[in-house]
Write a structure and sequence with these properties.
The structure is a single chain. This protein is mainly α and 185 residues long. 41% of the residues lie in helices and 0% in strands. It contains seven helices and no strands. The chain is elongated.
């Protein structure tokens, strides 16, 4: 009988402790400054920052992470220079043509067509006209001119520099050159 009473007392104590537990909020906060950071008002005067202002312009000449300096201007001279001098930093083993095809279909195929023949869906529906074929001898595209066009855009085509990182742009260039070679057969 005494053991039964001991078991009942232990159960009552455990039930009481379990009923006080509330999972939706912590019971105690140790060091609350670790949970709630000090808020600074953007563009406000503060002694915590070098010039007294939190949001500051980056240092001149800095380049964001994941980007590299592109030395060719968006001019006719820059295009000619890129066509002459710009070469892909990727060798054939670094190019993922399956990924390049996916990117090409998303960004380029709608106008240029999946074969690079200038017969994409927008051209077929006459929403946009004058999209050239990749094997057009008058254009004589190469990897430098293709990359420059992807980076800055040309005529009605906009820039894809924000949608594609540098490696993806070079992969698309390799895929366009492959399509050009297929069209020239």
């Amino acid at each position: 009988m005494k053991s039964l009473i001991k078991i009942l007392v232990v159960m009552v104590v455990l039930m009481t402790m379990a009923s006080c537990k509330k999972d939706s909020a912590p019971n105690y906060q140790y060091m609350p400054n670790m949970y709630q950071s000090v808020g600074y008002e953007t563009y406000s005067e503060s002694s915590a920052f070098a010039n007294g202002v939190e949001a500051q312009l980056p240092v001149e000449g800095t380049i964001s992470r994941g980007h590299s300096l592109f030395e060719y201007d968006n001019t006719a001279e820059g295009t000619a220079l890129a066509k002459e001098l710009l070469k892909s930093p990727l060798d054939s083993t670094q190019v993922d043509l399956d990924n390049a095809k996916v990117l090409f279909d998303i960004y380029c195929g709608i106008c240029h067509g999946v074969k690079g023949d200038g017969q994409g869906n927008l051209v077929k529906r006459e929403k946009i006209l004058g999209v050239p074929r990749y094997d057009d001898a008058g254009r004589a595209i190469n990897e430098g001119s293709i990359y420059h066009t992807i980076y800055y855009g040309k005529n009605a085509m906009g820039s894809y520099a924000n949608q594609l990182n540098e490696k993806e742009r070079w992969e698309v260039v390799a895929y366009v050159l492959m399509l050009k070679a297929d069209l020239e057969k």
